[in-house]
Amino acid sequence: MEVGSSLEVDVNGEEIFIVDKKILSSFSARLGKLFGNLASSSRKMKVIFDNFPGGSHVFELMARFCYSNGTIEITPSNVVLLNCAAHYMEIDSNSSEKPNLVDQTEKFLEGINYWTWSELLRALKQCQNLLPATISSLFLEKVLDCLVGRLNLPTLASPFTCSSNNSQFSCDTSSTCSTRNNWSQTTWWFEDLLVLNANSFDKVIRMMISQKLDHATIFRFIVFRLRSIYLSVRLAEECKITEVSINLLSLLDRSSLSCKGLFDILLAARLKAVSKFYKLKLEHLIGSMLDQSTLDHLLVPSPHRNHHVYDVNLVLRLAKAFLLEGSKISRNQLSKVASLMDSYLIEVAPDFLLKPAKFAALVMVLPDSARESSDRLYQAIDIYLQVHVQLSEEEKVRLCSVVNRDKLSAEALEHLARHSNFPSRKTLQSLITQQSKVNISIHNHFSYLKDSSQSTFHMDSREDQEDLEQILIYARRSGHSKKIDNLDTELQGMQKRVAEWEKVCAMVRSEKRIVTKPSLHGLGKARSLPKLCS
C-alpha cells in the first residue's frame, strides 16, 4: 500500500478497517466524490460510517469485491447484503467503467426461483433488517412473491418437520381440514412466516389474495399470527400487525371467516394498544355475523370487573351492528340471534353487579318480532328479579313489560301466575297507561307553554307552569327522569322570562299613575302590552 493512500474506516463502531482509498474509490462513487480533491494528500485519513447496512461483515464483503477487481462469489445468503452495500457505496453503472456490484447482484436475483425455502427465508430476514436503509425494495418484493408462489404449489410439502406448536392452533372455519395430514399440508409454513414484520405481512397477504390462495387458509394464518407470541417483535410492531390484519379481513370472502377466529383477533386487539377505530371496525364485522356465534364467544370478561362480570357493552354493540344489516337479515338469522341473546341473558342475569339499566338494554336490544317464544326471555328476567330484590316497582315494570305474554307457553304462564315478584298483567297495563298519560300531558303542556312564550303571556300562565311542575315531579317518580330533563330546563327558562316580564309590568303600572291619558293615546304606533301586564 502506497504512503498516503491508507484509509482508516470505522464501520458503525463495530470494527476499524485499514484499506487503500485509491482501490475503493475506483469502484465507489461515494468515496470518489469524498476524496476527489484530496487525491495527492499524504495525510492520514479516517472515515466513519454510522449506519452502514449490515455492519462490518458486509463492509468486508464489499472491500473484497473491490480488492478482487470486481469479482466475488454471490450466493443466496449474501446477495441481499451485497446489494445493500453496493447501493450505499454507489458501486453502480454510474460510478465508473469498472464492474459494478448492483448489476451483478440484480442479475443473480433472476435465478431466485431455484432457491430453497430456507434460502428464501434467510433473504427475507435480511431484507427486513436492512430496508429501508437502501433502495433495494425490489429484492423484498421478489423474495415475497417467490415465497407466496411456493405456497400455491399443490405438490409442495413442508421442507421441515412441523413443530408441536402448530397443533395448538384450532381450525374451526367452514372449510375445516378433514384429516391432520391434510391440515399439515396446507399450514406447514405458518410458523416460518412469523418473521414477517407489519409491512411484509401486509404485502404477503395481498399477494396471497392476488394469487388466489385459499381464503380460509389465509384467514387461519392471520389468526395464527396474532395468537402467536413472537418475543423478538416489539409491542408497537405487534399493534401495527393487528391493525393491518383487521384491515385485510375486508378483502377475504365472508364465507371463509369464522366467528371463533374473529373473536381471537378481537381478544388480541383488546390486549394490545390498538386504536378504537380498528376495534370498532372489527366489532362491526363480527356483529354482521352474529348469527354464527355461540354463547362461549360472547362470554368475554369485562375490562372493568367492578361493574359486571362479562362485557355486556361489547355484546350490545355487536347486537346493534347485526341489526344495522337491515334487509340483509333473514328470518332464520334473526331467530338465531334472538336465541343466542336469550342464552346470554340467562347467563348474565345472576350477576349481582349488573345494573338494571344495562340489563334492560340487553333485554330490549332486539324487537319482539325476533322471538317466536318469550319463555327463555321470561326465564332470564325471572332470574334477574330473584337476584336483584332491591329493584323498584318502576324498574320491574320496565323489564317485565318487554315479555310478550301471548308468546309464553302454558308452563311459563303457570309459573308466572305463581310468581309474586313478577308484576301482574293488570299492574303492568295500569302503569303503562299512567306512563302514557304522563307523556301526553308533558307534551301538551310543554307545547302550550312554548307557544305562549313565543307570543303573549296570559294571567294563568303561572298556574300552567305550576301544573307542569307537578307533572314533571310525578314523571320522575314514574321512571321518566331522563325524558323530562330537557323539559325541566325549558321550564326554568320560562320561569326566568316570566319574572322579567313581571318587572316590566310593574314599571309600566307605576308610569300609568304619572302619565295623563292624552299623552298615552298619542302613542298610536306603540306595541300593545302583554296580557300578563294588564
From TrEMBL:
<dbReference type="InterPro" id="IPR043454">
    <property type="entry name" value="NPH3/RPT2-like"/>
</dbReference>
<feature type="domain" description="NPH3">
    <location>
        <begin position="187"/>
        <end position="437"/>
    </location>
</feature>
<dbReference type="GO" id="GO:0016567">
    <property type="term" value="P:protein ubiquitination"/>
</dbReference>
<dbReference type="InterPro" id="IPR011333">
    <property type="entry name" value="SKP1/BTB/POZ_sf"/>
</dbReference>
<protein>
    <recommendedName>
        <fullName>NPH3 domain-containing protein</fullName>
    </recommendedName>
</protein>
<dbReference type="Pfam" id="PF03000">
    <property type="entry name" value="NPH3"/>
</dbReference>
<dbReference type="InterPro" id="IPR027356">
    <property type="entry name" value="NPH3_dom"/>
</dbReference>
<comment type="pathway">
    <text>Protein modification; protein ubiquitination.</text>
</comment>
<keyword id="KW-0833">Ubl conjugation pathway</keyword>
<comment type="similarity">
    <text>Belongs to the NPH3 family.</text>
</comment>
